[in-house]
Amino acid sequence: MRALTWQGRHDVRVETVPDPEIVNPRDAILKITSTAICGSDLHLYDHYIPTLRAGDVLGHEFMGEVVEVGAKSTLKKGQRVVVPFTISCGNCFFCTKQQYSACDNSNPAETSDASDLLMGHPMGGAFGYAHLTGGYAGGQAEYVRVPYSDVGPIVVPNHLADEEVLFLSDILPTGWQAAVNADIEPGDTVAVWGCGPVGLFAIQSALILGAERVIAIDHYPTRLALAKKLGAEVFNYEDVNVREALDEMTGGIGPDAVIDCVGMESHGMSVDNLVDTVKAHLFLGTERPHALRQAILACRKGGRVSIPGVYGGFADKFPLGQMMEKGLTVKQGQTHVQKFTRPLLAMIEEGKLDTTFLISHRASLEDAAEMYRHWHDEQNDYTKIVLKPEMAKGTVEKVLEEPVAA
Question: What's the DSSP call for residue 105?
Answer without folding.
Answer: S
